[in-house]
Write a structure and sequence with these properties.
alpha+beta; four-stranded antiparallel β-sheet; 16 strands; extended
Length: 652
């Protein structure tokens, strides 16, 4: 249960074996390839000889995008029915890496994307046609061609005006220009009036200027011939053709829905090849050899050396030096019980390579605190059942798996503290018993203490647990400093404050304040040694005392949230149960109690996690945690849609 020790890997391999080596390293899944071979390229002579590798990555990414786009099309038009909490299918590693079906799947993906593009074009055409039909409808009753050429001497124009403009105003505007014109009223609705005006060709320009002056607009349909009614009929037929096209193409896409699983498998295959190609492009080489630099867990070096022995290559495995620690990738090795705490650690930040793995140290506090805040047997049972069923049915990996397993462990703690406080969906059972039998003597479940009856005891217990966790963090810091040779730092910091805090307690109890004085001396010496001047030492001492006293007080007080959340959750559940009982109806009681407890459960499920996380990160980690670790991201196979059944790699 610690930070995994890493080995620095340097490999020089023949170019002819580059792709096969990277393929086998991907199967092995334990080597992280550096972004560029910095150690080799730091040599000017080597840098002049080596250049970045190329691997056909653009083509692979194009294939990946095509497959993913095809899957989105199938998800839209032919969604697959999936059982609730269903697990991903299991595929053997050899079947997964077998790319014989890739060409057919890429061809299918191209067809699906092509059909989807046609559907989108047809949909856009339908929108265009509908817009044109709507623009023509006001003129449907007009028997004249909407873009008619008129006669040798006369011309026609279509006019649109807002509904507030009266026809008389339009007539008067035209009459002010010419007497040889005719205004024809065509149609109107709530927003506009439509007219057609016929005038002499040489006077039409003046007529249009006159009607524009009062708010009329000329309407034109430059791409259409014939009457408005004829064009509407033509457009409706065009729309029907587009709709038929969409129906036919949708049927074709739905018929390919049976190939969704195959496309997903190919998408995962190509994603793995993309990842491998990205790692290849992190290498550097020349005409004959390729250089790889990276990292491998010390526990996996046996498998790695067995694999490398199959290739014509030279390699070295070395421990990283201290200057390289910031670049060493960090992986955490924990037991199955502690491993879910990686969810919390990764949400904050991975520890530095030379830091401390917080997971086993944080696990008992996190689970304990969550149970104290939730403290209800009914809620605990729901959490345990949800965790067991989801893990068994879904076989989740990564963050989802950590979250569900952590939910189950916190559910056990919640049940235990619920049994200690007598909470089962609040006071659901006593309320139900009183409603069914008003003369019942069953008023509460057996309990060691109750949130409402023992508030001070719970508050003191919460603060005491805070003291325990804070002092645990200080002990961890001292142990780590002693291991790394920082003994004086541990003495002048944690040692001084232990003397001060314990000395203050002893002084309150009536003992001599010698321990308190010793702590103050240690703290002062530490500040003066660090500052190396009288003024700096005095300033540092004042700041250390002020920040230390207020910091410890506020940190310990933060643990009162354990009592606050236990109390609030219990009270909210009791309130909803009481509201249900006030109906005097069993059915009403069940409905209100279920809704209320459901809301309370959901609220506390998140609230307890957030506050528990805050206590670990701000109060506990601040005592010893050194963050900033870079995640260990080995070249491996990590599919999205299937689970891989690993096969042993046989060495020649």
């Amino acid at each position: 249960m610690a930070i995994v020790k890493m080995k620095r890997l340097d490999v020089i391999v023949l170019r002819s074996q580059r792709d096969e080596l990277m393929h086998e390293l991907m199967r092995l899944g334990c080597v992280q390839v550096d972004q560029r071979p910095a150690r080799t390229l730091s040599d000017p002579d080597a840098a002049a000889e080596l250049s970045p590798e190329r691997s056909g990555l653009p083509k692979l990414r194009t294939q990946q995008n095509e497959l993913n786009a095809a899957l989105r099309v199938l998800e839209q038009y032919a969604p697959q029915k999936k059982k609730l909490l269903s697990a991903r299918p299991i595929v053997s590693e050899s079947d997964f890496l077998n790319g014989e079906a890739l060409a057919d799947d890429l061809a299918l993906a191209e067809r699906l994307c092509g059909w989807d593009a046609q559907i989108r074009r047809a949909t856009a055409d339908i929108a265009r046609v509908n817009t044109e039909i709507e623009s023509l409808k006001p003129w449907e009753s007009l028997d004249e061609e909407i873009n008619g050429a008129g006669t040798k001497t006369c011309a026609m124009a279509l006019l649109s005006a807002i509904a507030q403009i009266e026809p008389q105003s339009v007539t008067e505007a035209i009459a002010s220009v010419t007497d040889a014109a005719e205004l024809i009223f065509v149609a109107q609705d709530e927003t506009q009036r439509c007219f057609a005006v016929i005038a002499l060709r040489e006077e039409m320009g003046a007529v249009l200027d006159a009607v524009r002056a009062i708010g009329c607009t000329q309407v034109t349909f430059p791409s259409m011939t014939g009457t408005a009614h004829e064009n509407i009929l033509r457009l409706r037929a065009e729309r029907a053709d587009h709709e038929e096209t969409i129906i036919e193409l949708t049927k074709k896409i739905k018929a390919e829905g049976k190939h969704t699983a195959a496309l997903r498998l190919s998408a995962d295959r190509v994603a793995a090849e993309v990842f491998r190609a990205e790692n290849i492009e992190r290498l550097a080489g020349n005409g004959s050899v390729v250089v790889l630099e990276g990292w491998c867990p010390a526990s996996e070096t046996g498998k790695l050396t067995g694999l490398l022995a199959r290739f014509d290559c030279a390699y070295e495995l070395n421990d990283p030096v201290k200057d390289e620690y910031p670049e060493v990738p960090v992986a955490l090795k924990n037991t199955a019980v502690v491993r879910p705490m990686s969810l919390v650690t990764e949400m904050y930040s991975l520890p530095a390579y030379d830091g401390v793995d917080p997971n086993p140290l944080m696990w008992p506090f996190f689970v304990l605190f969550y149970g104290i805040m939730m403290a209800d047997m009914g809620y605990g049972i729901l959490m345990i059942l949800a965790s067991i069923i989801a893990v068994k049915k879904m076989r989740p990996k990564g963050g989802a798996g950590h979250l569900l397993r952590l939910l189950g462990m916190c559910g056990v703690s919640t049940f235990v503290f619920g049994a200690m406080t007598g909470g089962f969906f609040g006071d659901l059972l006593p309320q139900a018993a009183a409603m069914l039998n008003p003369a019942t003597t069953f008023t509460a479940l057996p309990s060691l203490f109750t949130p409402l009856g023992d508030i001070m005891m719970i508050l003191i217990g919460s603060l005491a647990l805070g003291v325990v966790q804070i002092f645990t963090g200080m002990i961890i810091s001292v142990v780590h400093k002693c291991k790394t040779g920082e003994v004086l730092s541990a003495l002048f910091e944690e040692g001084a404050w232990w003397c001060i805090l314990f000395g203050a307690v002893l002084m309150i109890l009536g003992y001599a304040p010698w321990l308190l004085v010793a702590g103050g001396v240690l703290l002062a010496v530490g500040q003066f040694v660090t500052a190396k001047s009288l003024v700096g030492g005095l300033t540092g001492l004042f700041g250390a005392v002020y920040n230390g006293v207020t910091g410890y007080f506020s940190d310990i007080l933060s643990y009162s949230r354990l009592m606050a959340l236990m109390l609030s959750g219990s009270v909210i559940a009791m309130v909803f149960n009481t509201l249900g009982a006030m109906t005097g109806n069993v059915f009403g009681f069940i409905i209100i109690a279920m809704i209320g407890n459901g809301l309370n459960f959901a609220l506390n499920l998140l609230g307890c996690f957030v506050h528990d996380l805050r206590l670990q990160v701000l109060e506990f980690f601040s005592r010893f945690y050194k963050d900033g670790g870079k995640p260990y991201e080995p070249l491996n196979i990590d599919p999205q849609y299937v689970d891989i059944l690993k096969e042993e790699i046989h060495h020649a």
